[in-house]
Amino acid sequence: MTGDTAPTSRAAWAATQGRLRRLLDQLTTAEKIALLHQYQPAIDRLGLPAFRTGTEALHGLAWLGEATVFPQAIGLASSWDPELVETVGNAVADEVRGFHHKDPSRGSLNVWAPVVNPLRDPRWGRNEEGYSEDPWLTAIMGTAYASGLRGGHPEYLKTAPTLKHFLGYNNETDRDTTSSNLPPRVLREYELPAYQRPIATGAAVAVMAAYNLVNGRPAHLTPLINQELRRWSEQPLVVVSDAEAPSNLVDPQHYVDDHPAAHAAALRAGLDSFTDHGEDSQVTIGRLTEAYERGLLDESDLDRAVSRLLQLRIRLGELDPDADPYASITEQVINCPEHQQLARHAARRGIVLLTHRGLLPLRRDRDRTVAVIGPLADTLHTDWYSGTLPYQVTVRDGLAQRLGAEAVRWCEGVDRVAFRVRGTDHYLLAAESPGSAPIAAGPAGAGNASHLDLFDWGGGSCALRAAANQAHLRVNEAAELVNDSAGPGEWVVRETFRLVEKAGGEVALRHLATGRYLRADPDGQVRVDAADLNDATGLMVELVESAAATAAQLAAEADVAVVVLGNHPMVNGRETEDRTDLNLPAAQEALLKAVHTANPNTVLVVTSSYPYALGWAAENLPAVLWSAHGGQEHGHALAEVLLGEAEPVGRLTQTWYRSAADLPDLLDYDIIGTDATYLYYRGEPVYPFGHGLSYTTFGYEQLALSASEVAADGTVTVSVEVVNTGDRPGEEVVQLYTHQLRSRVKQPLRALRGFARVRLDPGERTTVTLQLAARDLAFWDVTRGRFTVESARHRIMVGRSATDPALSAVLTVRGEQIPARPPQLAAIDYDEAHGVTICDQHPVDGDAIRAVEPAAWLEFRDVELASQPRRLRLRAANPTNAPATVTLRRDDPLAGELLATATVPVTPDRHSYVDLTVESAVPAPEPADLYLVFDDPGTIVAELGLEAA
Q1: Residue 384 CA to chain centroid, in angstroms?
Q2: DSSP-assigned beta bridge partners for residue 180
């Protein structure tokens, strides 16, 4: 497997440390503080040039002009090909180096990629940035990409990869103020593993902290930075902030009283580089200087962070240009032919065949004419972290180059409408010039000035394009509606609207970025400045041309219809905006159904950043394919797969659910308690994790284990014969899953443990072997605060996806029996809970539990009791306005035997605790299930225990 990098030699390490000590000794305190901002100044007297952290390189060099645009990260991962992902990372690193050679001031060699947040919920607005809902697969792909970015030299880095975003970051809604509450098992088994492998292998050398809070504490202050991240590698790990996040600690998070104290707390928690206030470093310098002068920081705090930053720069070869093995890479590598071919190969490998009932691959002798239909059929869209496309090959282009332009018929599949002002003969009129003349209201006239193409991007978001000049409408800073945009884009998207119903069949046009409504004056002036719906001008929507009717006619005249639907990466599901549902945009689904009615030989191609609910399509269409937004070579890749020039070899790395009703609350991160992700989901998805079909078929035979039993530190070899039972060559992804049959705790229904790719000709068979280490079956034991391999039987499953095991066997693991837990308990280590949330025990460290509703409770299973007089000891806080009651019961939270009652007095704040000791009834000596019951919301408990009187 990829990702194992060459270690730094001891001699090189010693030399670097000596060099760092000399540099630190010569730096003044003011210079050290200045180096802690993203934009580090030059220190000429020490030969230190200016430096900054952060070049975006998620799936190509971004934000710096034209560069090779590879498929989105979720598309790269769908290849299930770590070697390919590493190769792409290596190519991206070359382009970063090439741009840095051209312009060192703009092209930092510290790259902010990859994103290794597990894709817990497909509604997350940044879904396309991650790799998988499985933490192990995420770690494999993140390690592969980071390995490519860092290069293979033992001492020097090609680029310095930065993992994003630590920790528990999967929602955009209120992302700066919401807390991702992670029970210990979710933290240890689901969230942390995605980071551990890239760091432990040396692939990643930096981490970016996340915007959100974790268990009530801002992620930029989490003790996990030092307690976990930095213990996984002997190499220094640089931690950078997300943009403006250090300021967020004061407002909007209100976690620290003032900015100097907040910056000091972040530095002490392990942050090294402050990304705040753009290029203006003086704000950060001023705050850190004041913190130092107030005694909130000392020199050692500065030295720790500065030494990590300087070592990163040394490893990048910045201070040794003559020895830097990557210094000769120039801008000639950017979008070179080799990278174009790699982009095409990567796009092709990530395409997933979701449904296949014989229509594909298309044949030139049978499918002579193809209708290519849909809003994504003849355009490519890029996301916020994409590079600038140097060229683009659309699906229409790709098919036309192979079948001939005369064989490919095209229509965009969007309604053309006109908006008439209520009670008048005036319409919204667009300028024909390419400039930015404001939209006006007036008589329609003979031209097409009133015609607008209506793009439905789902979630109530739409975009409008003027037929007069093919430019999108947007609202400018003067609140004018103008048609001069290439389409939705930029951080603030000014090209999206919502049609809001009014009385009498009228609609109002609401601008999503500003929340304002369109208002048309009697003199024809149009402005988007109405504050509420009552002040908005009512508009009648008149259909000029029906997308469904036009597309159906085109499809009926063709042999095959290829409908290309999906999302716009800058609309309805992007950074700062989560989705509210999983549905295809209503207009797109209507278009698809109309085309299928006109021509049953309809192929659906979904190009999207995330999964959709495709129940109707899965049940009714002969073929459905999915691809992420595939970059500049997207059209070539899809055409090759559609025509059978290449096999569809991609596999899903996320579950495709039937609806959002199958998902828990977006802000609930407890995947175990909510039965979330493929690991715990008990329903039947439309397409499961790991799913992907081929143009051929495969059979599985003779599953065998090298041993029927294995010790906790042992390894078993799993072998299975795979045979191509079809009539075409093809590739299969053989997937290994396990399920622990009995356990003290709730176990995943299935968990991915390994996979292998095999390519077979028709009739060919091969034996696939996969290694399964018993230690990988460990789970986090809350009773002892460590991972454990339990003595148990495990079902070993091999097959095509998480819910399609072809064969299974049983393996017995000789581990340990978890003993009864001692009666001294941390509240966070509960087994089950109701009506509570996790919160921070102290601003610096520790977790606690807070009741959020009456009669909330915590269960502690199998607590060891002794037959002696006892007292209940409680460490609690009560930041309410009245004393609160907490009770301890046995076996049931409501009707169980009452063991003790404690009254928690009012405390000054949520971080002020009291230690209480009350008499407890003497329970029977055998282990028992104990319930701590909160009578009143707001009570916080950190620790409890039964002790001898």
Answers
A1: 14
A2: 214
Q: What is the mean pLDDT of each run of 10 residues along the chain (949 residues)?
A: 52 74 95 98 94 97 97 98 98 98 94 98 98 98 98 96 98 97 98 98 98 98 98 95 98 98 98 97 98 98 97 93 94 98 98 97 90 98 97 98 96 97 94 83 90 97 96 96 95 97 94 97 94 95 97 98 98 96 98 98 98 98 98 98 97 98 98 98 98 98 98 98 97 98 98 98 98 98 98 98 97 97 96 98 98 97 84 96 96 95 96 95 85 96 91
Question: Which CATH number characterizes residue 884's domain?
Answer: 2.60.120.260
DSSP code of 86?
Answer: H
Of the candidates 94, 121, 242, 276, the residue annotated as catalytic is 242
Q: Which of 880, 858, 876 is nearest to 912 (CA)?
A: 876
State the residue range of the domain holding 304: 10-333
- Of the candidates 862, 863, 711, 680, the residue with the CA atom closest to the CA atom of residue 789: 711
Is the separation of the CB atoms in 878 and 912 below 8 Å?
Answer: no
- Residue 825 CA to residue 516 CA, distance in Å, equals 54
Tell me, yes or no, whether 156 and 299 share the same domain. yes
| Domain at 468, CATH number | 2.80.10.50
Quick count: other Cβ atoms within 10 Å of Cβ 67? 27
CA distance 933 to 872: 13
d(CA 616, CA 637): 26
β-strand pairing of 217-218 with 213-214: antiparallel
Token reading at 446: 């003979």
Instruction: Give me the amino acid identity at 37.
Output: H
Active site residue 174: no
Measure Cα distances from 896 to 383, 822, 852, 889 in Å: 55, 20, 22, 5
